[in-house]
Write a structure and sequence with these properties.
The protein is of the alpha+beta class. About 20% of the residues lie in helices and about 35% in strands. It contains 3 helices and 15 strands. Strand 14 and strand 15 form a beta hairpin. It is elongated and about 65 Å long. The structure holds zinc ion. Zinc ion binds near residues 119, 224, 226 and 228.
Length: about 260
């Protein structure tokens, strides 16, 4: 059967961590691992430098049956695959969920919160780079996993400024966290999106699309499909652990207090 793109319900209300939906397809993979495709999902797939949400899926009509969601990936034009196993506390061998089966999704709140804080930390860092006189560095990519998050920028900081800038960035980030600032996200028409982002959008965004634009306060926005804190204050505290500049690129590593 042709699979249609999964509706990303976490865009509607990022604070919603549980919701009902229905199964479109259930694939049995090698061993005990399964893949479930749903009509809509609250699970953020791995992507944009952000790890996947985890959690579980309860199946209506099967009391106590839990499908443990271990990994979530978006592929084939937006079809979201929920990979995992049935909890091993009952005989689940041979279970086959049919199209239309009602289920209830439960996202692991702790992991979502950490992912959102780490990812939002990347946006915060981008703003701080502007505020400490490093706006000539262009953000290239972010890695927002807990094991050493960083943002990589095109361009380099002179080596004699690395330590000063590391300190300035950290002071600026914590000052912004202390003040607090709302984070907003909206799916808008291309022209409006371009305006929100200071008049230019990256070339990979189709002019026919309605991009999702994320903004921290009144700072220029950027296209982003990640999950975010509601307010920059929710990041807690921010430490710039290292700046590495080489071969025309600068990586700024950071951590958050847990
Ligand atoms: Zn984002």
């Amino acid at each position: 059967m042709a699979l249609r793109a999964t509706r990303l319900a976490f865009f509607d209300d990022p604070s919603m961590l549980d919701a009902p939906t229905t199964v479109l397809c259930h694939l049995e993979e090698e061993g005990a691992r399964h893949a479930i495709i749903l009509d809509s999902t609250l699970f953020h797939p791995q992507g944009g430098g952000q790890p996947a949400d985890t959690g579980f899926i309860a199946v209506s009509g099967y009391p106590g049956l839990k499908f443990i969601v271990e990994d979530v990936r978006s592929k084939n034009n937006g079809v979201v695959y929920h990979y995992g196993v049935f909890e091993d506390n009952q005989n689940t061998h041979g279970i086959q969920l049919k199209e239309g089966q009602e289920v209830h999704l439960y996202v692991n709140a702790q992991r979502r919160n950490l992912n959102s804080r780490l990812h939002s930390g990347g946006h915060l860092l981008d703003i701080c780079m502007q505020n400490v006189g490093l706006s000539y560095l262009e953000p290239e990519k972010g890695y927002h996993f807990p094991d050493g998050p960083f943002v990589e920028y095109k361009g380099t900081i002179p080596s004699d400024q690395l330590l000063t800038k590391q300190k300035e960035l950290e002071i600026e980030a914590n000052a912004l966290i202390a003040t607090g600032c709302k984070v907003s996200a909206a799916v808008v028409p291309y022209d409006e999106a371009s305006e929100l982002c200071g008049g230019i959008l990256p070339g990979y965004i189709s002019k026919d699309s309605n991009p999702r634009i994320v903004r921290v306060g009144s700072n220029p926005g950027c296209p982003c499909g990640g999950t975010h804190v509601a307010d920059i204050a929710d990041i807690g505290s921010f430490k710039v652990t290292k700046i590495r500049a080489k071969k025309g690129f600068t990586k700024v590593f950071y951590t958050l207090d847990s």
